[in-house]
C-alpha cells in the first residue's frame, strides 16, 4: 500500500533510485522558505519562489534541499508551530505547489527533505483546540501533557521545567466555565503544546503523516526536537539549581534525550524502508555528547543527526581536531556518516560568529570584524567540505552573508527574543531574506519588500554581484562543491589521517587529497602537498613550500 502514490505523487527518478547511499556524503542545502524567494510580492518567501530558484541550487552543486516548515501554521514560531501537518500554509502556497516543487527538484536530480515537527503542535491544532474546549477530562487532553497545578489552588506549575525560549514551560488554561484550570506543558512557546507520546493516537497520527509526505514523493525528513518527544516518567523536577542551560553541557534533562525516543525511530525506520529511493531521516537532536548523538543513527534508526558540537566549535585548530576525532569515533561503531554544519536558522551566521572573540556562544549581537569573519567563514567551509560524511549549508552562507545584528526590535518576530534570554534569542538576524540582485526593492528576493529589512550592503553580496566573479564566496562554494563531486576521496570514508603541522594549523590526508587549514592570525609555511585544487585565500608556493595566509584553507591533490 505504501508503494502506491497519490494523484500528487512524484517518485524519485531512475537515476536517484539507482545511486546507493546517496546521503552518506551528500551536501544538503537548507532553505528557510519565508526568506528564500518570494513569487507573489507579498514580502514573504513561498514554494513557487523556491521552485523558480531550483536551477540555482542545481548549479551550486548541492545534492538535496531541506525545507524548513511550510505547513499550515499561525507562525508563532515561524512555522515550527504546526496547525495542520497535511496542509501548506496559504502564505507559502498549496499542496499543488508542493507537488510541483518536488517534481521539478527531481527533474533536476535534487532531493527534497521536509521538516517534521513531532514534539509539539500549534495551539491552533484541531486536537488542542478541542482539548481546551471540552475541558478537564476530555480524552483529547491525554494527547498533550495537561496536569493540575501545585499549591492550594493549583496556582503553581506542575513542575520546575523552563521553556527553552525562557519563562516557565507550563501555561495555565482558563476552563470553558471561565475558571483558572489545568496547566499544559510547552517546552517552547505557549503556542506550542507538547504532545504526549505515551498516547497511541499520537504515534498513529505521525506514522500517517510520514506516509502522506512519502506518498507526495519527498526524499526524507528533518526531525525537529528529535531528542524531546519522550519525557521522563512522572515529569520529575529538575534537580539542583535547575539550570537548563546545562542541557548543552553534560546533563541529561528529564525532557531531552530519553532512551524511549529510540523506540519511535525504530518504528519510523520500518515505514521509510518500505519506500523506494533511499529516503532518509536526519535528527535535530541536541545531546550532551556526540556519543549520545550516535544512538540516534544506529542502523535500525535514523540516517543522520546534526553535529551541533561541530557547529559550536570555535575557529581553533585544537578544538576542531578534537571534535572531528570525537565525531568520527562516535559514528564509526554505528556505521553512520558523520555530518558537519556551521550555520542554520537558529544560530548567528558563522561569518559573524567568527568575526567576534571566541566564547560568545552561538547567539551574538555584535557585528565584530567583518572582514576577519568572512575570511574565517570561507576557510571553515573548505575545511567542513573536506571532511568525510555529509555537510549542511544554510541559505545565504554561500554568499558570505553576515548576521543582521542591528534589526530594530519592532521588526523582530522570534518568540525566543520576546521571552527573554533562553537557549536562543537573536534568531531573526540569520533569517533575513537573501539578496539575489544588486537592485530592486528587496534585492531580487521578490517584487515587493521583505518581511525583515535587508542591509544596503547586501547589494554587493547578491547572487548577481558574485556570479562569475573569480574569488567571490559564491564561486568558492560552487568550485568546492564541484571538486567535491569529482574527487573520489572527498565525502567518502570515515576517517582522516592527520599530518604534522605547525601550531594552530590542521592538516590531514584522505587518499590522494590533502587539506590544510590555518586557523591562526599569521601566515604559516607548510609543504606544498601537490597540485592546488582550491584555496579560500591567495597562497604562494616557493621551492616545494606553501605560504598560507592567516585564516585560510587549502585543498591539494597528490595525484
Ligand atoms: C528547533 C527549530 O530549529 C527551531 O527553529 C524551533 O524554534 C524549535 N525547534 C521548536 O520547534
What does this structure look like?
With 559 residues, the protein is α/β, with parallel strands linked by helices. It has 15 helices and 21 strands. The protein has helices at 14-18, 47-52, 54-60, 95-107, 126-134, 200-215, 261-273, 290-294, 308-311, 317-331, 350-353, 370-385, 415-418, 463-466, 473-486, and strands at residues 27-31, 64-67, 71-72, 84-88, 111-116, 146-147, 170-174, 180-185, 220-223, 280-283, 304-305, 339-341, 390-394, 497-498, 505-510, 513-518, 524-527, 531-535, 540-542, 545-548, 552-557. An eight-stranded parallel beta sheet has the order 11-10-9-5-2-1-13-12. A five-stranded antiparallel beta sheet has the order 14-15-16-21-18. It has a three-stranded antiparallel beta sheet with strand order 6-8-7, with no helix packed on it. Strand 19 (540-542) and strand 20 form a beta hairpin. It is globular, with a radius of gyration of 23 Å. Mean pLDDT is 92; it is low at 1-18 and 242-250. Bound molecules: 1-deoxynojirimycin.
Q: Main attributes?
A:
single chain, 559 residues, alpha/beta, eight-stranded parallel β-sheet, five-stranded antiparallel β-sheet, 15 helices, disordered N terminus, binds 1-deoxynojirimycin
Oligomer: single chain
Query: What's the rounded overall pLDDT mean?
Result: 92
Strand content: 15-25%
The whole-angstrom Rg is 23 Å
Bound compounds: 1-deoxynojirimycin
Strand order of the largest sheet: 11-10-9-5-2-1-13-12
> What's the total number of strands?
21
- Report the sheet with the most strands, covering strand number, pairing sense and barrel closure: 8 strands, parallel
| Shape summary | globular
Which spans of ≥5 residues are poorly predicted at pLDDT below 50? Answer: 1-18, 242-250
Please, how many helices? 15
The termini sit apart by 50 Å
Amino acid at each position: 500500500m505504501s508503494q502506491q502514490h497519490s494523484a500528487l505523487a512524484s517518485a524519485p527518478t531512475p537515476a536517484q533510485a539507482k545511486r546507493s547511499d546517496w546521503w552518506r556524503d551528500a551536501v544538503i542545502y537548507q532553505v528557510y522558505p519565508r526568506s528564500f524567494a518570494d513569487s507573489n510580492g507579498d514580502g514573504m518567501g513561498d514554494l513557487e519562489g523556491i521552485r523558480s530558484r531550483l536551477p540555482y541550487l542545481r548549479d551550486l552543486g548541492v545534492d538535496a534541499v531541506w525545507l524548513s516548515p511550510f505547513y499550515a501554521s499561525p507562525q508563532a514560531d515561524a512555522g515550527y508551530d504546526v496547525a495542520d501537518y497535511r496542509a501548506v500554509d496559504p502564505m507559502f502556497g498549496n499542496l499543488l505547489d508542493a507537488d510541483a516543487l518536488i517534481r521539478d527538484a527531481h527533474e533536476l536530480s535534487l532531493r527534497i527533505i521536509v521538516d517534521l515537527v513531532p514534539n509539539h503542535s500549534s495551539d491552533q491544532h484541531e486536537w488542542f483546540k478541542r482539548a481546551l474546549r471540552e475541558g478537564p477530562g476530555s480524552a483529547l487532553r491525554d494527547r498533550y501533557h495537561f496536569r493540575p497545578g501545585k499549591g492550594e489552588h493549583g496556582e503553581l506549575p506542575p513542575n520546575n521545567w523552563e521553556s527553552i525560549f525562557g519563562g516557565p514551560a507550563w501555561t495555565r488554561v482558563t476552563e470553558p466555565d471561565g475558571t483558572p484550570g489545568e496547566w499544559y506543558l510547552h517546552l517552547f512557546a505557549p503556542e506550542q503544546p507538547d504532545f504526549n507520546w505515551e498516547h497511541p493516537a499520537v504515534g498513529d497520527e505521525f506514522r500517517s503523516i510520514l506516509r502522506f509526505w512519502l506518498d507526495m514523493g519527498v526524499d526524507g525528513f528533518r526531525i525537529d526536537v528529535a531528542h524531546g518527544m519522550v519525557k521522563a516518567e512522572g515529569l520529575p523536577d529538575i534537580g539542583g539549581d535547575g539550570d537548563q542551560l546545562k542541557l548543552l553541557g553534560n546533563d541529561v534533562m528529564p525532557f531531552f534525550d530519553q532512551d524511549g525516543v529510540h523506540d519511535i525511530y525504530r518504528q519510523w525506520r520500518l515505514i521509510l524502508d518500505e519506500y523506494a529511493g533511499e529516503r532518509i531521516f536526519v535528527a535535530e537532536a541536541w545531546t550532551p555528547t556526540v556519543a549520545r548523538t550516535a544512538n540516534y543513527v544506529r542502523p535500525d534508526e535514523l540516517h543522520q543527526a546534526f553535529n551541533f558540537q561541530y557547529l559550536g566549535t570555535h575557529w581553533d585548530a585544537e578544538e576542531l581536531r578534537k571534535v572531528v576525532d570525537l565525531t568520527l569515533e562516535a559514528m564509526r561503531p554505528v556505521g553512520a556518516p558523520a555530518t558537519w554544519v556551521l550555520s542554520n536558522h537558529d544560530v548567528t551566521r558563522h561569518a559573524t560568529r567568527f568575526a567576534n572573540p571566541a566564547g560568545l556562544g552561538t547567539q551574538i549581537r555584535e557585528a565584530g570584524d567583518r572582514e576577519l569573519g568572512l575570511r574565517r567563514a570561507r576557510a571553515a567551509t573548505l575545511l567542513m567540505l573536506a571532511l568525510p560524511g555529509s555537510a549542511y549549508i544554510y541559505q545565504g552562507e554561500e554568499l558570505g552573508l553576515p548576521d543582521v545584528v542591528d534589526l530594530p526590535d519592532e521588526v523582530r518576530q522570534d518568540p525566543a527574543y520576546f521571552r527573554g534570554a533562553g537557549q536562543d534569542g537573536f534568531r531573526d538576524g540569520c533569517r533575513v531574506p537573501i539578496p539575489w540582485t544588486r537592485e530592486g526593492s528587496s534585492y531580487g528576493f521578490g517584487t515587493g519588500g521583505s518581511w525583515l529589512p535587508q542591509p544596503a550592503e547586501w547589494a554587493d553580496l547578491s547572487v548577481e554581484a558574485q556570479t562569475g566573479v573569480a574569488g567571490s564566496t559564491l564561486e568558492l562554494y560552487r568550485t568546492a562543491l564541484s571538486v567535491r563531486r569529482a574527487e573520489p576521496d572527498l565525502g567518502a570514508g570515515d576517517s582522516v589521517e592527520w599530518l604534522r603541522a605547525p601550531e594552530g594549523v590542521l592538516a590531514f590526508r584522505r587518499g590522494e587529497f590533502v587539506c590544510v587549514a590555518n586557523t591562526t592570525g599569521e601566515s604559516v609555511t607548510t609543504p606544498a602537498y601537490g597540485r592546488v585544487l582550491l584555496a579560500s585565500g591567495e597562497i604562494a608556493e616557493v621551492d616545494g613550500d606553501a605560504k598560507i595566509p592567516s585564516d585560510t584553507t587549502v585543498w591539494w591533490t597528490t595525484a
